[in-house]
Amino acid sequence: MDAALEIDGIVTRFGAQRVHDGVSFSVRRGEVVALIGGSGTGKSVLLKEIIGLVRPAAGTIRLLGSDVWRSSPEELNALRRRFGMLFQDGALFSSLTVAENIAVPFRENTDLPMDLIAPLVGFKLALVGLAADTGLKMPAQLSGGMRKRVALARALALEPEILFLDEPTSGLDPVGARAFDRLVRVLADSLGLTVFIVTHDLDTLLSIIERAIVLAGGRVIADGSVDALGKSADPWIQEYFSARAPLAGA
Amino acid sequence: MSLTGGWIEHKVEEGASVLYLTGAWRLAHLAAIADALGSLRLRLQERFILDGSRLTALDTAAGFTLFRYLAGLGCSESMVSTRGFGPHHRQLLGLVHENMRCPPASAHSEHLGLVQRVGAGVIALAGLLRTHNAFLGAVALDTLGLARRPGRLRVRETVSQFEAVGLDAIPIVALVTFLIGVVFAYLLGVQARRYGANIFVVDGVGLAVCRELSPLLAAVIVAGRSGAAFTAQLGTMKVQEEVDAISTLGLSPIHVLVIPRLVAIVVALPLLAFVGDVAGIAGGMLVGAWQLGITPGAFIDRLHATLPVDYLIVGLAKTPVFAAVIALIACRMGLLVARDARSVGVNTTSTVVQSIVWVIVLDAVFAVLFQYLGI
Question: Strand, helix or coil at A32?
């Protein structure tokens, strides 16, 4: 299988601070992968570099076969239609209703008539497990979990090939977080999506990911299945896994 | 077989309608696919078979459109069967089918009619005025507590607000009142010169600037500058739950946020109005010297003789009231912000409109009141 995402030798500097110092990894199509690491290890920055919002100082990022930072603005926009991004707090447009939020990608990027868009929006709401009357609400009226689901519906609107999730379960209770994870897994399986998750909270994700990439000190220090990582000799990884051991044992 | 642009082919095989789906059934081609389905002109039949053997791609949007079309024909679940789909496509169709029981969501905001808009507006206004009252009471109580223990005033915050509201506004207030003084003296001078009554321009400029124009203009500028800033600041704090954090720490948001702003603006506005008085008279003086042959010395003499200090005081005495109204409205609207970006904008606009309207209404009340009192 070909790679959906290839990252090679990424270097990022903020002033004198070196956030990434040669980060390289790749993600195959159809994989569900988590990028983990402590706070401040530059996970979110890396994600922004992948989706073309922040330019790295050096290195190449190939997303779905095209080089993100050597593409023209038109090519980058065409590429942006092929992936979905779920921001940490949903980033719903607060002046639009939920249904209008989900309709935005359809309206801006397709020439579908409104009488085709409205049923599609209802379907996307159902797909992420929300009742149709949620569509009439404003984002301010929703709970954190519902906001994430709406944001997921918006991210899935244009049938992306790869889905980026930034801290998908932060701010959700464990039950809500697990339900959200299951939803992502089901969607990934049935839609054949590649899912790239950035998180510091691996606990709830263990069941849905196939592989974890660990970022620390500006480099990838481990890359493998969760079981393999648990046996790693690296002190940070050991501490990370032992920190959650009592929970897992309970 | 019907003309369907190659997306779908309809054949009857052994009493069943077989639909051969062809090509890439993706969102990008959805409009064409929907047209193709529409041009099939199928009638409801006993059995439908969907054949996926010629599909190259399928996504949820296209799958949903197909199922919706079949449901629109009146097909029930048992009448449709599938064959020849790849495992991925079958799984995807299963997912789509599970989520089919959804009414279409309207992707438009509801638009209210005129009567509903007026009604909703009246109800919102009544609610706003009622909460204004409650807020006024809370601020009054807090101010009373402060009068008993003045040491509790947050001096640092008050001084920093005073700088933003007062000192930083001096240039703009001076400029605007200076220009108004120029315009007023010029227009008055054009009339007065016809009767050789040039010197009376001094009376007119002094009276108008000190009593009405400078206090009013200073208040309007402060409402637009600082009122809007107060609402936006408090509103953003509300959005980021800073106001809740203040309450949780056992502090009163009114004491911490509202009182310093109220005090700062009540002190600053009379001073700004005084700056405006000086600038407005300077503007009049410039026109007098330039156009009307009144030397600055003669202008000041005449001003001394004809402008009673009462007028200056009356003008300045109005401004603390204007200031309090502006501060109360601005802080109230800021604390009323809901947790979204749009509401900050709406409330900021509302602050500026409300405070300017109230300043002008109060000015009219003062004008009538002072006439009664003979000032």
Answer: strand
